[in-house]
Amino acid sequence: MAVSFPKCPSSSLPPLQTRNRAWSSPLSAPHQVGDSSKWALLEATKRCHLSVSSATNGGSAVAPVEPSKKVQDSGTKTTPTDHSTKVENGIRPTVFSSNEFQDLKTGPDNSGRESTVSITVVGASGDLAKKKIFPALFALYYEGFLPKHFTIFGYARSKMTDAELREMVSRTLNCRIDQRENCDAKMEEFLKRCFYHSGQYDSEAHFVELDKKLKQHEGSRISNRLYYLSIPPNIFLDVVKCTSLAASSENGWTRVIVEKPFGRDAESSAALTRGLKQYLHEDQIFRIDHYLGKELVENLSVLRFSNLVFEPLWSRQYIRNVQIIFSEDFGTEGRGGYFDSYGIIRDIMQNHLLQIVALFAMETPTSLEAEDIRNEKVKVLRSMKTLEIDDVVIGQYKSHTRGGVVYPGYTDDKTVPNDSLTPTFAAAALFINNARWDGVPFLMKAGKALHTKRAEIRVQFRHVPGNLYKKCFGTDLDRATNELVIRVQPDEAIYLKINNKIPGLGMRLDRSNLNLHYAARYSKEIPCAYERLLLDAIEGERRLFIRSDELDAAWALFTPLLKELEEKHIAPELYPYGSRGPVGAHYLAAKYNVRWGDLGAEH
Amino acid sequence: MTILRFYQRPSSLSIAFSSRHERSFSGSSELVTLTTRRNQCWRFSPLKSSNGSPLAGASWKDDGKEMPVPKVPDIGSQLAENTVSITVVGASGDLAKKKIFPALFALYYEGYLPQHFTVFGYARSKLTDEELRHTISTTLTCRVDKRENCSDKMEQFLQRCFYHSGQYGSEVDFCELDNKLKEKEDGKLANRLFYLSIPPNIFVDVVRGASRSASSPNGWTRFIVEKPFGRDSESSSELTRCLKMYLIEEQIFRIDHYLGKELVENLSVLRFANLVFEPLWSRNYIRNVQLIFSEDFGTEGRGGYFDHYGIIRDIMQNHLLQILALFAMETPVSLDGEDIRNEKVKVLRSMRVLKLDDVVVGQYKGHTKGGKSFPAYTDDPTVPKGSLTPTFAAASLFIDNARWDGVPFLMKAGKALHRRGAEIRVQFRHVPGNLYKRKFGTDLDKATNELVIRVQPNEAIYLKINNKVPGLSMRLDSSNLNLLYSERYPREIPDAYERLLLDAIEGERRLFIRSDELDAAWAIFSPLLRELEEKKVVPELYPYGSRGPVGAHYLAAKYNVRWGDLSDSS
């Protein structure tokens, strides 16, 4: 376990020490050097990291047996002494600036060669790369989570120099609010490790050039390569083909992060997977769903499995319904081209919300290991009833004028066809036909141009059977049930609505929240989902990435519905920009005796 | 404030009856509409009446913010109006001055008292009505959140306060009181409530005098009795026997003011009005329950009474045991007083008799801190030098029924400790087969869920849960799902005495202790108390202002428990 799950290196260590997953970076060095009481911590830290990087020592580009390799490696790691040497080397400023390549041989070498990670962002000039990927990489570097030696390459068609890329990247970097010191210096160091290579996405020759450049930076280290495909789906395969044929690592691992969309339906998704698998093994493919990297989605499993008080309630016996709600308060805003060919169901529901349902509803996995968790998720997805058109309501926003401001309709967007029927809103009722969840409606709702921006999970419990306080609740007992709300964004929070007595001489009941507001308790900035996912990909932690069979099962649920919507040209219910969405969602909920928790008088 | 207007109209008390009793004649249609309104919760009083008189049933109390304003019909001129006369016996005492009169005023101020009422003080000292009013007025305060009209209200209240001086054992003096009461009652249907704020040795004298000479001829007569209810099983049942010579069970209201505390009241609501707690409420999920009471001061020169009783009788056998019974009882058939007390008796009777091995007693000693010296218990001039009376006790109790078999219920009560507080802590078991085991160190029981109900100060409910520390690593942390009353309910929480007095006036017996309950409670503690005294068990000394004797930790350890209030993260 300690081995296959690098974040908790050793069971024998006290909790404080097992937590540390930071690379032994310059940032942490001052605490560690020369303090013998920290040896255990150092050891833990190192074992954690080395078990990851050394897993690649086998030399093959494919790493199907990584876990077992880690088992072997973690026991035989280096001693504290040589580790401290490494740390001290790490804090030498020169190491990172001019003398990057010399640094290579200064480290300890008794466990083999050093390893390095090269991260190539394919589509480096794109929006996602600028706004999310480079900043996330910098944040990881700043917090000391990247390995000591790493290289970042931007790859795109546009002609750019390294300096131009750096200039572009530097505009979007910022430092954590809570750790501003050295920010500029850090940024400078980070940018020095960023390079650019211009090339066509389908040219093997260009990738061969990239490979050469990468080798030059990697020196004689064991090279691990991560490709982040931040490009349109139609060129996924070209790039994958070129990278795997021309720019794979020769002695370390090569991994490819792919962003959604993963096809448009079961068939195209399967075709994409097939295509990818011509060049990659399953465990080289990291399908990212950035929702799974959100803090509270991560916390969902912790809540369920490390608290006694929730798991007994986690079934049809106590839970009346589950609601997964996503809303944005803006529309496509002139960027509807991509969206229009996918629609909200493919864009949000079939991936983000369904993934959350699977995590929420899965049985207890055997361990926290990625394969165990993904096995359980697949089981949930495969137990789900295929979605039918009767259980779905779709909507599209229309223009709306409020306070003198005119908000455009979806079809007013110039990038959207005027007669588009693409849903910008959808609500759906899903069912999991297994022993735990039979009959419990899982309601999903996702929409653009709504009145709030939010993502949350609401668990409504049944009413108390034979409630002694019945008379205090009015006629509908279901309106005063307990409710657990996990607000994923904004303002991360967990709260449990309970009934309690209003203080005073009467016996009036009230619903209050047992509350945990993250911002109040944890002043630290919550890391962006991309940071976590990039780090996981570097570390080979696959828990939060979507396996091929998961993806197939997810598409199987939605594809018949999506086809039907398109074949029958179902017209979406129009709703005003900035409204609470089409009322049809209420009727859908009513059909299953549910009330949306987010649209009540009180949330 | 609806209630206020309500009661200011004539015959308002009979309106209160009307919702439950056919004998009300008026306003019932109005009330029916009220009762069926949503979100109004009514309190129900038992249908039985104490002595054949009608009960003030189902009177409604509410903070009334959004209550509808009922049109009170013009009624009552043709019927006998009701009145309540509240006689505080021992009116010159401390409790009367500090708690009872202020509580009565608060009830009046908030409109909970019936339109016509009379308050009498009765004691031996010679006082005029004016003198009594003056004494009372110095302790009255208005609610922080409702200052308006306060002095008017106070004046009106004081006008209804009177004093009668008499001997506690003299029937003649009570006859005189009766005459005065009749005068004030003025032909109305008279209900009488006697609050015995006097030492226990004269309880029976007063009950005899009052019941024989000053009982209501046509309404109910009720007696509120304060602890101590005896010193052990025998003296308690003797007291009950004597009371019952003059009173029937329904007339006796044994007060335990802890039961009037807001969060103790809320305990049943939490359990029975939420789905999420009841499934966990058993030995399957609960590892132990801790009932903790601490005061941060000693006897401070007033140890005479205390020395005779000790902390076990003073706090544990009544307050803490009552809370335990409410906590652990099975779901009652209804919220009716008798149904709840039936369930409480069942719990108490299922409990194992306490043994000396399961108890730790302590006594505080002098302590100097920051140049200030705090006296020991035996430094108190009112306490005998060689006193062995415990000022601290910890005990582990067990309920041998299907729900609680094997779950330790730990109690702890002490004076002169490092802080003041009363709380209930429910420690849950650890997660079986915890996937996150490695994050918790070796002792899984140190990171279990815990539900804390803080009764005082700063009323709060919180549930400790494990969650992930935000960030890239997988660090777990214990956080609280929190409900802090002062934040959510900025209004002042009423004093326990207000609730209990009101309940007694309304005949709501849920929070008063029935004779069989009292017997069962003494049965658990009497053998231990006797043994402590016979064997002259020496209490473990602990410094004034400390966390109490370490013996309490060893007692907890014996049952694999850790006190939740003394860990760092409490």
TrEMBL record, chain A:
InterPro entries registered for this protein in UniProt: G6P_DH (IPR001282), G6P_DH_AS (IPR019796), G6P_DH_C (IPR022675), G6P_DH_NAD-bd (IPR022674), NAD(P)-bd_dom_sf (IPR036291)
Residue ranges occupied by any Glucose-6-phosphate dehydrogenase NAD-binding domain in the UniProt entry: 121-299
Keywords for this protein: Carbohydrate metabolism, Glucose metabolism, NADP, Oxidoreductase
Annotated Gene3D superfamilies: Dihydrodipicolinate Reductase, domain 2, NAD(P)-binding Rossmann-like Domain
Chemical reaction(s) catalysed: D-glucose 6-phosphate + NADP(+) = 6-phospho-D-glucono-1,5-lactone + NADPH + H(+)
Pathway in which the depicted protein is active: Carbohydrate degradation; pentose phosphate pathway; D-ribulose 5-phosphate from D-glucose 6-phosphate (oxidative stage): step 1/3
HAMAP family given in the database record: G6PD (MF_00966)
NCBIfam families membership: zwf
Biological function: Catalyzes the rate-limiting step of the oxidative pentose-phosphate pathway, which represents a route for the dissimilation of carbohydrates besides glycolysis.
Name of the protein: Glucose-6-phosphate 1-dehydrogenase
Organism: Rhynchospora pubera
Taxon lineage: Eukaryota, Viridiplantae, Streptophyta, Embryophyta, Tracheophyta
UniProtKB/TrEMBL annotation, chain B:
Pathway(s) it belongs to: Carbohydrate degradation; pentose phosphate pathway; D-ribulose 5-phosphate from D-glucose 6-phosphate (oxidative stage): step 1/3
Keyword hit for Oxidoreductase: yes
Glucose-6-phosphate dehydrogenase C-terminal domain ranges (all copies): 269-563
Gene Ontology MF annotations: glucose-6-phosphate dehydrogenase activity; NADP binding
Keyword Oxidoreductase: yes
Enzyme Commission number, as recorded: 1.1.1.49
Similarity comment: Belongs to the glucose-6-phosphate dehydrogenase family.
Record protein name field: Glucose-6-phosphate 1-dehydrogenase
Species, as recorded: Rhynchospora pubera
Taxonomic lineage from the root: Eukaryota, Viridiplantae, Streptophyta, Embryophyta, Tracheophyta
